[in-house]
């Protein structure tokens, strides 16, 4: 068993914690629904443009 497997068995998960929580996700989706640009949303929610793109793409994938 390697280190990552042992950590998972103990309930530990590696990697960086997600930047977008449920509140930020809802804000991003609502602002995009109102027609705001991705750049404006990113500035308002204080996340990167890439995070906004990923959140919108993930939401679109889940809806389909």
UniProtKB/TrEMBL annotation:
This is Helix-turn-helix domain-containing protein. Residues 27-61 form the Helix-turn-helix domain. It comes from the Bacteria. InterPro entries: HTH_58_Actinobacteria-type. It holds the Pfam family HTH_58.
């Amino acid at each position: 068993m390697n280190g990552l497997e042992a950590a998972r068995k103990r309930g530990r998960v590696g990697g960086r914690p997600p930047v977008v929580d449920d509140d930020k996700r809802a804000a991003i989706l609502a602002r995009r629904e109102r027609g705001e640009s991705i750049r404006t949303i990113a500035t308002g929610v204080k996340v990167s443009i890439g995070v906004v793109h990923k959140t919108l793409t993930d939401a679109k994938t889940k809806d389909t």
